[in-house]
Amino acid sequence: MSYELWDKFFNNFDDRDVDKLFKSSLNSHLRIFYSSFPNEKITMKNNNNPWIMSEIKKLCQNKEYLYLLSKNNSDSKLKKYYKSNCKNLTLTIKEAKRNWYNDQILTSNNKNKTIWKIIKTGPNKQNKSGDGICFFKENNENMCHQELADSFNKVFLSIAAKITLNLKKL
Questions:
Q1: pTM for this prediction
Q2: Domain that holds residue 25
Q3: How much is the CA Rg of the chain, to the nearest whole Å?
Q4: From first to last of its 170 residues, what are the pLDDT tens digits of the chain?
Q5: 3-state class (DSSP) for residue 1
Q6: How far apart are CA 136 and CA 158, in angstroms?
Q7: 27 lies in a domain?
Q8: Residues 6+ apart with CB under 8 A from 146
């Protein structure tokens, strides 16, 4: 602001219109302000995963701490402990997701709609490797996403077959 020429505001006796002087002064201030503080778009990451419990948060913090310790340390026991902690965290997260999705299905009024919603938004979007989240059947057996898709296809193909048989009878 010290580089601004203020003579045009205070020494201009030809133009005594206060509104014009104010607008000119305001424009000058705003120009300086916006050049000093540019707008930056900040995006917040959505971490509203309901399956993340306090236990998982503590395990993540512990993993970060162990990573920092083992990063510059050549102790093989510490690195083994870090790797086992990572595996434990991964298993805990998978179990938490599995339990969350199963609870969503069991408490749902429309189970098919909930299952399709989970398939569209949940594990398939996050897990590209093919070892997706497993669901429980009614008899507590595991059913992975491929088995689930196969069972859906079997049901809907049988419906189509029944319709075609009924049409042939007519």
A1: 0.48
A2: 7-36
A3: 32
A4: 566 666 666 665 566 677 777 787 788 788 888 888 877 777 766 667 788 888 888 989 999 999 988 888 888 898 899 999 999 999 999 899 888 888 888 898 988 888 888 877 765 454 444 455 566 555 556 667 677 778 778 887 788 777 777 777 76
A5: coil
A6: 23
A7: yes
A8: 130, 132
In this structure, the answer to whether residues 26 and 64 fall within a common structural domain is no
Split into its structural domains, the chain has a count of 2
In a domain, 45, yes or no: no
Three-state DSSP at 128 gives coil
Distance CA 95, CA 23 (A): 63
Residue 123 and residue 145 in contact, taking contact as beta carbons nearer than 8 Å: yes
Residue 43 lies in a domain: no
Q: Which amino acid is at 8?
A: K
Kindly report the number of other CB atoms within 10 A of residue 122's CB atom: 19
Compute, in degrees rounded to 10, the torsion defined by CA atoms 126, 129, 131, 134: 20
64 and 24 within one domain? no
Q: State whether 24 and 58 are in the same domain.
A: no
Query: What single-letter amino acid sits at 158?
Result: S
Q: Please tell me the distance from the alpha carbon of residue 34 to that of residue 57, in angstroms, as a whole number.
A: 40
